[in-house]
Automatic annotation (TrEMBL):
Pfam families linked: GntR (PF00392), UTRA (PF07702)
Domain HTH gntR-type: 24-92
Protein name as it appears in the record: GntR family transcriptional regulator
UniProt keyword annotation of DNA-binding present: yes
Signal peptide span: none
Keyword terms of this UniProt record: DNA-binding, Transcription, Transcription regulation
Amino acid sequence: MPAPTRHSRLSADGPVLDGIPEHGRVPRYYAVKVELLAVIAELGEGAVLPTERELCERFEVSRATVRQAVGELVLEGRLSRRQGSGTYIAGPKLVQPLATESRRPGIRPGRRAITLERRVAGRALAADLQVTSDTEVFHLERVLLAGDERVGLESTYLPAARCPDLLDVFTPEQPLSEQLGMEPAGAEERVETVLATPREAMLIGTNPALPMLLTHRISWGPDGVPFERVRSLYRGDRLSFTTRLGRPAG
């Protein structure tokens, strides 16, 4: 077993050994990244990051090294670039509990409708909703907002027979469960990371190269029959997910 290596610049609250190879030699860009985390903590949310030139002089490294370190922090959502303005310290990520829509208190959401249409289910959707492939469904697409900030894109599919009046009662801002008068009795949800398509990136207002969090959810009612399939795409630089397993002791 190799001898323990001391890393005096890293703490238990920071990245600790993340990114450090077994031989213990820290890549130069990563050392700059760790130093930048201290700069971010010192400057605080909304402050402008020093220029590339200033950072190169401060850390005595090349522009390529600074750009790699800053680029990773942008991808992680710790920094944000504004065209023609500079690079800023980003605010903390919004925390989104993994739960059915009506029980998600993490974000006070806003929603903007993009698509509301009738269509035929098709084979894959029909299997998920336990209907025939020629069953008529509603497809509802909404941009998800946190205040005025676009943070995601949600596509919902529902059998038209279970909510025939949806077009008459639908309002973009209100949770669907309230509009349908139907609380989910349970749901199955899967989370993965993806890159947004050009259209999705345009609607969300993000860079197509930034990683996104994608959730697939199928919800069922008290009768045990699925009544919706939801595909939600979230900005990975602005959202994180949380869930609780069991109850705290005491």
